[in-house]
Every structure is written in structure tokens, then in C-alpha cells.
Design a protein that fits this description.
By secondary structure, the protein is an alpha/beta fold. Helices cover 21% and strands 25% of the residues. The longest helix is centred in the N-terminal third of the chain and has 18 residues. It starts with a helix and ends in a 6-residue tail after the last strand.
Length: 840
């Protein structure tokens, strides 16, 4: 074992401080002369992208998104997904995966909800810990993100998330605590926003006192990209690594100069370097350079895990008996909807990767059923936010300077019309650069098409020899695409003829932009005279109709929240009209977050497949035909109305403040407390079979600080194999402080053959019955690092995790509203008891 302190002592101040900021967008620099290797990181969380941005880069395995993994409720499976992602990171030469995202679904319209597991802190924390254990078993570090309260994209770089300490501890910090204590995370990523007035990268209470002090975190705290706001305050708070490079505050010798000037403490630098060296020890980077070569690896075992996860994430919301389909009785199947012929497999932003393949639901159904079943298709309507990027490859010549002239210095190939980079392409080392990208495509329709050019910088676009979009010397209004760095799209309507090839040429220069560079080339097809009528005609004579609706990576993306849960475009009208002409209508919802469904009573079945990764379509067909049971359960509440959600009146915020006024009543806790009806409850999901359960507790009375075990025998009473999720909620009968009526405290998933029984155990530790009481301390002063005032003459039990004596009910349930067993337990004592220090 290397002596890390001796290694650090051998470094110069300049070498130490250089390690604390990125060498470039994705590289943590080492010290070559001492054998301390550079470490490459890569974006996650639904794949390891490697070099590139927004879906560019080499192909990589795309697993289901965070909310889909949340819907599996399967700790073992998510750990296996983590192992796969660790292997994928290694294939891209990376030893750090910037994942998982473990913020919460505070509101159903959060732009990055698809990245996050759940609305519930316990479900999120258990799955996050499993994901982390899986990735790190491959020698790849994780950085659970974003610490903390980065639960929406509203003014995410500056907003002040105002949250009381109890809510923080019980809800928003809990998944991170579990990621550290149960997952053993080697890294944590700090968020952009402020927390109670202080930027999270500068929040000493959050980073030093809670994360490193109370939880014992021994890893590296890395900033989100460009999240650091200061040199000394972030260092003193406990930040260890500023990304990306060249760093704005610590980079280019500034941190070393501050130490020499007495403005920053070398002891803080040494503490950070010790952790950065420990990280390298964990990922094998203390024996010379690592191989950072990127490779494409299509490994059947990894693909199989992605397919299983997609199937286990699929939630059967409604079923009148039509599913699984009786394939032998099908002669004609209609497949309609805007997401039927396009693979919507992931959300947008830093999670976006270039998948190994894209298979649409239509293609998967034709491949599986086409020999015996006539499959007819109609789009029905569109649901695009922007003109969709062209899904064709571009050959790109790279030039030094802002004019793409002379001989190119390099050439690269881009997988689609997203010609976007975070660094100069082709490894070019230049401040000023440009590209010329070329491609050709063959239209599949005759008529007026819309061509679009979105640019972060300066760009222009030719079709054949005609300049159709010119943003080279034109000042354009700021837009919200490409993380908000792009300008408003330029568009042009052009007449194209089916089957007649068209040449595309794009020129781009990195003028007037920063952070994100490049352009997006889009093409919108003709809509047709009445696309919904065409869908009705396709559905009218079919034995069954599958309507695939949802969103895409432009509606659900980093950098922007949704404004409503309503399906975009005319999708609701499409469903209603198709269902009116064919009662055997199955709706497949392909979205990363809840959508409104005022048509739900008019259709025969509803499946939610989320953004299910590259194997989503195949897994969907597995479920439709009964090869797989729909294994998913909702990880988030689907509200009946947007107005009946906990954060509605305080969302998104005002005057750069986001007030968490609903406190700990988030998700199902809110609808339970307010007795509000919901569209579909947290934990809901149907199977193709039936189950019975019996349940007992290991004790009916415990002392404060003790836990107990719930034993549940699950029996598959149906005729098919299927999944059942046992959910355990705790309900205090007479809480001393306001508490949610029920809180999820444990769960277990079983996969049983017909007639099979199995006992599962769920351990409820002391914290399952506790609440956090901050006592009489002034939390605002604590967070700001000010002296804490003395008590104010009223008694409190805290600060700490507190158990009140009395009766608690353990509810064994299949969702937040369907309870099968109520098991009472008494906690002895005459008054509240502080049970810290106690593990989870």
C-alpha cells in the first residue's frame, strides 16, 4: 500500500494545487514525475458517454433512465446495472462516473426528474447505494449528485433553496446520507444552487459538518461544472476539486498564489490532496498512466441486463384483461402515435449519450410479429418541442481559426445532427476554431419540410448549393436549447421530393459562445392533411391498437423544467379519437416523468415505459406479448391535477428564491396528509398474476433505539410467473411534532413462479420510527457558521434523531394507498429519546 501522506509531502505547492482543478473538461490531472496518473471522468447516469457532449461521442450502452430504475424497486438489479455501467466507463477510458442523480421529484414537472430515481428519499437512497456499490465494484468512482436541493432547473445556477433543517435531514439529505453510509461513495458532486443563502460549494455546514463530519465521508467533493463561485470560501467549506479545467477560480496557479499570499491555508490544500490521492488509490491510478482509450463494446451480457431492467421498469397502470396480447388471435395490429416510429430512449442534457442502437416500438413489433400479423402504422400527430435533429452521420473537417478555409487540421465523424462539443473537436489545441460538416439524406416524403439551425456560436447551413439558414454575422435572440447556451433557431421551409437525395453543408465557428460549442441541424417532415384521421383509419379495422405517446429529450432535459404534465401537441386528442373507433386500445406512455391522462377511463390498458434505454422497445414487446411480467411500480405519484401537488404554490420560485414551503410533505406524503385523490398512487403497478401475503413482526414492543424485522410470506396465486413488491410504511399514532401520516421505510421485490411462495424480511432500524428534531438552535446561524444562540426558554428534545414513545403501525402494502396488513408496535418510554449516534 502506498504511503499517501508521504506521496503528498513529496509534491510541490504548485503540483498539489494543480491537482485540485480540472486539466480540461473531463480530466483530473495527476503528477507525472511521482507516478500519480490523470483520471478521466465521464457523464452518466444512464450510460458512459466518454468524450463528447449531448449525444455525441462513440456509441455506448444506454440503460434505462433514473426514474425507470426507480420503477424497478429492485435493489439487486440496480446494483447489477451499476456493475454494467462501471464496465462501460472503463470501455471509455474513465475511472469516474458522474452519477447517480439522487435529487428528488419535488414536483412532477422538474426538468431532470427522469434522471432521478423517485419522489421518496428511502427508495432513492436504497437504489442509489446499490447503484454506487455496483459501479465501484469495477474500480470506478461515483459522484452522487447534486448536493443538495437541486430539484428543479429554475434559475439553477443562482436560486436560493430555502429549507428548514428538519426537512433537509428527513427528506433531501437522506438519499445522500444513504449513498455515503450504505453505498460507500468515493465522490460526491456539489450543486449549483444556494442553500439557505450560501452556495453549496461554499456551505461549510453542509460539506464539512454534515457530509464529512457526521456521515464520515472520506471521498472527494467535486463541484458541478462551473459551480464554484470563489477561491477561499469554497476551499474553507471543504470542496476538493473544481471542474472543469481550466478552472475559473483555482486554476492556472491562482490557488497556489493565494496560499503564498496567506489568503488560503495550505492545510486545506493538503487535506484535499490526501483525498484526491485516496481516490486514485481506489481506482488504480498510483502506478503510472492509465489507459484512456475509448472503445465500443457491445457485450451481450450487458445488453441483457439493460433489457431486463427495461422490462422490470415497465409499469402496468390499467388493464381490462387485454394484456398480455393473445398473439395467436391477432391478424391486424395498428401502431400509432408520435413515439411509435421513433426511439425516445433517454432524456436530454448531460445524461444524453450516443447509444449502441436505437430501435423504435414499431420496428420491434414488426420484427416480432410481422410474419403472422399485419402491422399498420400512422403517426397521428407530432410532439416535438423543436425541429428534430437529423438522425444521419456527418463528416466534419476541423480548421484552426474562425474561418473554415484552407487545409483541415483534422477530421471527425458525428453520429447525428447534434454537432456539439465541450472542447475543440479532433483534439485541436486552439482558442479559435471552426468546422465544416457534410452529409446527405434521402427524404421519405414529398412536400414542404422545415429545416432548422440551432447554434451556440456562429453557423450557417446550405441545402445543396442554397444557403437556407445564415447566423454567421447576424445577432440572434438567446434561446433555451443546448443547456441554454444556444440562440433561437433559424428555420426555413423547403420543398423536397421523396427519394431525391439532398446534400447538407454546415459551417461553424466558436465565436460569441462559451462552455458549449456547436450547432444542431434539424429537419421537420410534412404533417399531412389530417394525421389524426389517418390514425383513426388505421385503428378502425385492427384487432388491437397500440398508441405510443409521450415526450422526448427536448421536453425533459437538463436546463429547463416542464410547465405542465399535459402531453405536448395533439396527443390527448389522438388517444381519445383512436379509442373511440377501437375499444381494444392500449396506450404506451414513453416519458421520464408523470403525464396527465384525462382519457384513462376510455382505453383498455396503459403501460408506462419511461425512457427505457436502448432495449426499451424489445422489453416493451416482451411485456405486451407476455414473455415478461410488467415488473414496475410507480416511484412517484401521478397527480390528478397539477394544482394538487405539494410544491405547486411555491414553484418554481420568485426573486431567485425557491421556498420549500411544503416541508417534509413531499410526494405521497402530501396527498396522504391532505386526503387528496391521485391519478395513480406511489408504488402502484399491476401484474399479469395475483398474490397473497401474510405478515408478522419480530417484536410487538421495542425500546427507543431498537429496530425490528418484518417477515412477509408472498404467494403467487395465479397461473403465470410475476413480480410483487412488498412495501412497508410506518405510521405514528400520536406524533408529538407534525409528521406525514405514512412514510416508506423499507421494501422488497420478489419474482415468483405460479404457485410459489417465499418469505422476505425487511429490517426496520431505529431511524424508521424517528424524526429529526433540530432542538432550540438557530439553524440559519448554524448554516452561516455564526455562533449558535443559547436556548430560548422552551424545551426541545434535539438536536438529533428522536424517537417518541407510543404506538406505531407498520403497514404492509402494495402501494401508498393499498394496505394489506396493519401491524402495531409499541415503543416504550415516558418521553422522547435522542438516538444519535445511530446508523441507518
Amino acid at each position: 500500500m502506498p504511503d499517501l501522506r508521504a506521496l503528498r509531502a513529496a509534491m510541490t505547492l504548485d503540483e498539489k494545487t494543480a491537482m485540485m482543478s480540472g486539466a480540461d473538461t473531463w480530466t483530473l490531472p495527476g503528477v507525472d514525475r511521482l507516478g500519480v496518473a490523470d483520471v478521466k471522468c465521464t457523464d452518466g447516469p444512464n450510460g458512459a458517454r466518454g468524450n463528447g457532449l449531448l449525444g455525441s461521442g462513440l456509441p455506448a450502452l444506454c440503460v434505462p433512465c433514473g426514474s425507470a430504475l426507480g420503477a424497478t424497486w429492485n435493489v439487486d438489479l440496480v446494483e447489477r446495472v451499476g456493475e454494467v455501467l462501471g464496465d462501460e466507463a472503463l470501455s471509455k477510458g474513465a475511472r469516474m462516473l458522474l452519477a447517480p442523480t439522487i435529487n428528488l421529484h419535488r414536483t412532477p414537472t422538474g426538468g431532470r426528474n427522469f434522471e432521478c430515481f423517485s419522489e421518496d428519499p428511502v427508495l432513492t437512497g436504497e437504489l442509489a447505494a446499490a447503484y454506487i456499490r455496483g459501479v465501484q465494484s469495477r474500480g470506478v468512482a461515483t459522484t452522487p449528485k447534486h448536493l443538495v436541493a437541486n430539484d428543479a432547473e429554475f434559475e439553477r445556477n443562482t436560486t436560493d433553496s430555502v429549507i428548514d433543517e428538519r426537512t433537509l435531514r428527513e427528506v433531501y439529505l437522506l438519499p445522500f446520507e444513504m449513498a455515503v453510509r450504505r453505498g460507500g461513495a468515493w465522490g460526491v458532486m456539489s450543486s449549483y444552487n444556494r442553500l439557505n443563502g450560501t452556495f453549496c460549494c461554499e456551505n461549510r455546514w453542509l460539506v464539512r459538518d454534515v457530509l464529512m463530519g457526521e456521515w464520515g465521508f472520506d471521498g472527494v467533493v467535486v463541484s458541478d461544472w462551473f459551480a464554484v463561485r470563489s477561491l477561499t470560501a469554497s476551499l474553507e467549506a471543504g470542496l476538493h476539486l473544481e471542474m472543469p479545467g481550466p478552472a475559473l477560480h483555482w486554476g492556472e496557479g491562482r490557488l497556489a498564489a493565494a496560499v503564498r499570499a496567506g489568503e488560503a491555508a495550505e492545510a486545506d490544500v493538503d487535506a484535499a490532496v490526501d483525498r484526491l490521492l485516496r481516490l486514485r488509490e481506489r481506482v488504480g491510478a498510483l502506478a503510472g498512466p492509465l489507459d484512456t482509450t475509448e472503445r465500443v463494446e457491445e457485450v451481450p451480457e450487458r445488453v441483457a441486463v439493460a433489457r431486463r431492467a427495461a422490462a422490470e421498469a415497465t409499469v402496468l397502470l390499467v388493464n381490462d384483461g387485454i394484456l398480455p396480447l393473445d398473439v395467436a388471435a391477432l391478424r391486424r395490429l395498428a401502431v400509432v402515435g408520435p413515439n411509435a416510429s421513433v426511439a425516445r430512449i433517454m432524456g436530454g442534457g448531460s445524461a444524453n449519450i450516443n447509444p449502441l442502437h436505437r430501435t423504435s416500438p414499431l420496428d420491434a413489433l414488426v420484427a416480432r410479429l410481422g410474419d403472422d400479423v399485419e402491422v399498420v402504422h400512422a403517426r397521428g400527430c407530432d410532439n416535438e418541442r423543436f425541429v428534430p435533429a437529423l438522425d444521419i452521420a456527418f463528416d466534419v473537417d476541423v480548421f484552426a481559426g474562425h474561418e473554415p478555409a484552407g487545409e483541415p487540421v483534422d477530421s471527425v465523424r458525428m453520429a447525428n445532427g447534434r454537432l456539439v462539443w465541450s472542447d475543440p473537436p479532433g483534439g485541436l489545441d486552439a482558442d479559435e476554431w471552426s468546422v465544416r460538416a457534410s452529409a446527405s439524406f434521402v427524404p421519405v416524403d414529398t412536400g414542404v419540410h422545415t429545416v432548422s439551425l440551432v447554434q451556440a456560436g456562429r453557423a450557417r447551413l446550405w441545402l445543396d448549393d442554397r444557403l437556407v439558414c445564415d447566423g454567421w454575422d447576424t445577432d440572434l435572440v438567446a434561446g433555451d436549447d443546448l443547456f441554454g447556451f444556444a440562440r433561437e433557431p433559424l428555420t426555413a421551409d423547403v420543398d423536397l421530393v421523396e427519394g431525391v437525395p439532398v446534400a447538407l453543408t454546415v459551417e461553424y465557428a466558436n465565436r460569441d459562445t462559451q462552455v458549449v460549442f456547436g450547432a444542431k441541424v434539424g429537419l421537420g417532415r410534412p404533417a399531412g392533411a389530417d394525421p389524426i384521421a389517418a390514425a383513426e383509419a388505421a385503428a378502425a379495422g385492427a384487432d388491437a391498437v397500440i398508441v405510443v405517446v409521450g415526450t422526448n429529450d427536448e421536453w425533459e432535459t437538463e436546463g429547463r423544467d416542464r410547465t405542465t404534465t399535459q402531453l405536448p401537441g395533439d396527443q390527448n386528442e389522438l388517444i381519445r379519437r383512436v379509442a373511440a373507433v377501437n375499444g381494444r386500445c392500449i396506450v404506451v406512455v414513453n416519458a421520464g416523468a408523470p403525464v396527465a391522462m384525462d382519457w384513462v377511463g376510455d382505453v383498455a390498458a396503459v403501460l408506462d415505459v419511461w425512457f427505457g434505454g436502448q432495449e426499451m422497445a424489445e422489453a416493451l414487446v416482451d411485456v405486451l406479448v407476455g414473455d415478461s411480467d410488467p415488473g414496475g411500480r410507480l416511484p412517484t405519484t401521478f397527480p390528478l391535477r397539477d394544482e394538487w401537488t405539494p410544491a405547486h404554490l411555491a414553484y418554481p420560485g420568485e426573486n431567485s428564491v425557491t421556498a420549500y414551503a411544503e416541508r417534509m410533505f413531499v410526494g405521497h406524503r402530501f396527498s396522504d396528509a391532505r386526503a387528496l385523490p391521485v391519478l395513480f398512487a406511489f408504488g402502484h403497478g399491476l401484474s399479469y398474476t395475483t398474490f397473497t401475503t401474510s405478515a408478522t413482526l419480530s417484536a410487538s414492543s421495542v425500546e427507543p433505539g431498537e429496530g425490528l424485522t418484518v417477515r412477509v410470506v408472498v404467494t403467487n396465486t395465479g397461473k403465470r410467473r410475476g413480480h410483487h413488491v412488498v412495501q412497508c410504511y410506518v405510521a405514528p399514532s400520536a406524533p408529538r411534532l407534525a409528521r406525514p401520516p405514512t412514510e416508506l421505510k423499507g421494501f422488497a421485490k420478489v419474482d415468483l413462479a405460479a404457485g410459489e411462495s417465499r418469505e422476505v424480511t425487511i429490517d426496520l432500524g431505529p431511524r424508521a420510527f424517528a424524526h429529526y428534531d433540530p432542538g432550540d438552535r438557530d439553524f440559519a446561524a448554524l448554516v452561516e457558521g455564526l455562533p449558535v444562540p443559547a436556548g430560548r426558554g422552551h424545551e426541545r428534545s434535539g438536536p438529533g434523531w428522536v424517537v417518541d414513545p407510543g404506538r406505531y403501525d407498520v403497514l404492509v402494502a402494495e402501494s401508498a394507498v393499498v394496505v394489506h396488513h396493519v401491524l402495531p408496535v409499541d415503543i416504550a418510554g415516558s418521553g422522547p429519546v435522542v438516538i444519535e449516534p445511530v446508523g441507518l
